[in-house]
Specification:
Elements (H helix, E strand, L loop, with lengths): L6 E4 L6 H15 L2 H11 L15 H10 L19 H14 L4 E3 L10 H16 L2 H15 L1 E7 L9 E5 L4 E6 L2 E13 L3 E9 L2 E9 L3 E6 L13 E3 L7 E5 L21 H20 L3 E4 L5 E2 L6 E2 L22 E4 L5 H19 L18 H7 L1 H33 L8 E3 L8 H13 L5 H8 L5 H14 L53
Antiparallel strand pairs: 1-9, 2-16, 3-4, 3-11, 5-6, 6-7, 7-8, 8-9, 8-10, 12-15, 13-14
Length: about 550
């Protein structure tokens, strides 16, 4: 339980050098800022917060290789400044990933509050959680976290509290390039969050170490790449009100790490996740070069008119001459005697290769999206925007995207359950909240079945005698709570008394229906089965000899 001693200690620690370099690269792509991309790939680090990209320390061979092959690493030569275009696709990918996960808010449920005869403590905890979700705008926090995670390979969620600021705990996302984590067997054991307060010749950093039961604060004065000597917290206004050691009163760590996707392909064995851009950096670079080439074709391909100098009108000594392109009537001018075929006005229109460039962009985009784990139709690629009529057709077309979403939601589900349990513990400990329970996080289906699809499934299960009345109501109305379902079941049972509409679960002797009529044959005299209202209740199932 200690912060770094300081001194000539590299910061961030050398162990995380490769991870922070990758954060810098992916941060440049995510930013959508051409200046950051050019600065990063030119070898000077840019705004990547790592401090590792220094022109004096970066390997010259590596820099030469980048400048030779990477579009964003090339320098403008001479007085010519070339315009460079960034496609913005990396930001779109990160945003789409977040929308897939949290476009519809996940359900945060206290399981103990949704059972028959639930205890009041559990119900109070559910009400408190629902209220806190609205007060803390947790849905917005989840959306922000999902985007950060997709771009940088992971994100930290932390619980903090400041009674002077808010009378509730706060759930705050932390970017991974502002954290130094400590893992054991793949699980986060401690983490040090850091921020730069002064960034000049002298760099002052604030370090905040989180451990189970404790939070430690430290202030250091150093350089761009060295942590430097410890300072008193009171020496900076941002840390003046903090204590060096704070006991949280909670048995668990007040932060979790959520990987974007695992395993980390670029650092096998790492506990960190990998970005949606991993492995596509060269393709993204090529896409920007292709867009830049297309815009260059437009710029160079503008129609131009070349005229004989005899058509220009002198503006006076030292003022040059002009040509009025709007003038409608001109004096006859003799042709140049030495060239009888010369034209006094010659138009020129250069070829603009629009379709070739667009086809190249489409091919690159399709490959980049596939590398990130998504279907082309999720991004509206050509030949994929067809009209879908059923959820089954949509799921078939979006299979790759839905599989990626399912993998990411697994990581988020367990991490959010962990941190929301800590959140409720902090609410109980520091804000007189009800007893804390561990919530369950349920992600809704991205492609919802239509009511007709659900009704058809219920009818088939009922004909097969494989569903009870209560389960059929739950399937028809998945958004209802247990009390609403029970009430609906009782109403249906009250209406199912007349002969011919006898349902499962209504017979007092435990039977599932009534006897068949005397004149019915043994092959076709199956008893009526329970059917939800409007689905043909009372119809006998098809026997083997009736199959068509």
């Amino acid at each position: 339980m200690a912060l770094p001693e300081g001194g000539n200690v590299p910061w961030p620690p050398s162990k995380w050098r490769s991870a922070y370099l990758r954060y810098g690269e992916h941060s440049a792509w995510y930013s959508g800022d051409p200046q950051q991309l050019q600065t990063y790939y030119s070898g000077y680090g840019g705004n990547d917060r790592t401090g590792f990209f220094d022109p004096n320390t970066t390997a010259q061979g590596w820099k030469s290789l980048l400048k030779r092959f990477m579009f964003w690493a090339r320098q403008n030569s001479g007085a010519v400044t070339r315009q460079r275009i960034h496609s913005g696709l990396p930001g779109d990918i990160a945003g789409a990933s977040s929308d897939l996960l949290f476009g519809d808010p996940p359900d945060l449920i206290i399981p103990e509050a949704h059972v028959v005869k639930a205890k009041s403590a559990a119900k109070d905890a559910q009400k408190r959680l629902t209220r806190r979700v609205d007060e803390d705008s947790m849905h917005s926090t989840f959306l922000e976290s999902g985007e950060i995670s997709a771009a940088l390979g992971g994100v930290f969620e932390r619980v903090t509290w400041d009674p002077k600021f808010a009378e509730r705990p706060l759930l705050v996302p932390v970017h991974p390039d502002a954290a130094v984590p400590e893992f054991r067997w793949g699980y986060l054991q401690a983490v040090t969050f850091w921020r730069t307060l002064v960034d000049d010749k002298v760099v002052i950093r604030h370090l905040e170490r989180l451990e189970p039961g404790y939070i430690l604060h430290g202030l250091y004065k150093g350089t761009k790449d060295k942590l430097g000597i410890p300072m008193r917290l009171t020496e900076m206004a941002e840390t003046a009100g903090l204590e060096a050691v704070i006991e949280t009163g909670l048995p668990k760590l007040t932060a979790v790490y959520v990987p974007n996707m695992k395993p980390n392909r670029q650092e096998r064995g790492s506990d960190l996740g990998h970005s949606d851009y991993s492995g596509s950096e060269g393709l993204l670079d090529g896409l920007d070069e292709t867009w830049t080439s297309l815009l260059r074709d437009f710029r160079l391909g503008k129609g131009r008119i070349f005229i004989s100098k005899d058509l220009a009108r002198a503006q006076g000594r030292g003022k040059g001459s002009t040509f009025d392109v709007e003038q409608e009537i001109w004096e006859l001018v003799d042709m140049v005697p030495s060239d009888p075929n010369a034209k006094m006005i010659q138009p020129q229109q250069f070829l603009i290769r629009v379709q070739e460039h667009l086809d190249g962009c489409d091919a690159l985009v399709a490959r980049i999206i596939a590398n990130a784990g998504y279907s082309g139709s999720s991004f509206g690629l050509k030949n994929s925007a067809t009209v879908e009529r059923t959820a089954t057709e949509v799921k078939a077309r979006e299979h790759r995207t839905l599989a990626t979403r399912a993998r990411k939601s697994e990581y988020y589900q367990h991490a959010l359950e962990d941190i929301l349990e800590v959140y409720l513990m902090a609410d109980e400990k520091h804000f007189n909240g009800p007893r804390a329970f561990r919530p369950r996080v349920e992600f809704p289906e991205t492609v919802q079945d239509s009511f007709l699809d659900r009704a058809t499934a219920i009818e088939l299960l009922a004909r097969a005698r494989a569903i009870s009345l209560q389960t059929s109501v739950e399937m028809a109305h998945p958004e209802w709570d247990p009390d609403e379902v029970d009430s609906e079941v009782k109403r249906i049972e009250a209406r199912m008394g007349p002969a011919g509409v006898v349902g499962i679960d209504t017979a007092t002797d435990g039977s599932a229906g009534t006897a068949a009529p005397d004149d019915a044959s043994s092959e076709t005299s199956a008893s009526p089965v329970a059917m939800p209202p409007g689905t043909g209740g009372g119809l006998p199932p098809v026997s083997d000899n009736q199959a068509t």
